[in-house]
Write a structure and sequence with these properties.
Length: about 150
């Protein structure tokens, strides 16, 4: 039996949030889309988990302490510019959206609409990097101030 593109699964998803219940809700939302999950409860743990597991996708909260999600995003993208990181947050402001975009986020989704994750996270073979809208964007020359109040 031939598998269609829709039958393919993502290899691994790293779910980063400081709330265990939110990590579980995210996992429940996408568990049929991925083969494996790794979880981290903060920014520093996210960077370590990313480097160790090299996931296909990362869902990343912004408001975490002591290392926030924007700092973790910058660090992950500096080590792997091809990393696909979906910011998943409660902060619906242009300043946060712009900061996440500048840091290299693949997308920005609010936590009150978890089902949208399913529209963004797709198997690597489903969206070739050369077809991605982000593939044509230059990476930021410098790291802007990400010290937004969370």
């Amino acid at each position: 039996m031939n598998k269609t593109l829709n039958d393919k699964k993502i290899g691994k998803v790293l779910i980063v949030d400081d709330c265990a219940q939110m990590r579980q809700a995210i996992r429940s939302t996408v568990e049929d889309l991925a083969e494996d999950f790794v979880e981290a409860d903060g920014g520093a743990a996210a960077v370590r988990a990313y480097l160790q597991h090299k996931p296909d996708w990362v869902t990343l909260d912004l408001a975490m302490r002591p290392v926030d999600g924007l700092s973790a995003l910058w660090e992950i993208k500096s080590r792997d510019p091809q990393a696909r990181v979906l910011v998943l947050t409660s902060h619906d402001t242009n300043a946060f959206r712009q900061a996440a975009t500048l840091a290299g986020a693949s997308d920005y989704i609010l936590k009150d609409d978890l089902e949208k994750i399913r529209e963004v996270i797709v198997p690597a073979s489903a969206t070739p990097a050369s077809c991605s809208p982000r593939a044509a964007e230059p990476s930021p020359a410098g790291r802007p101030d990400t010290s937004l109040s969370l």
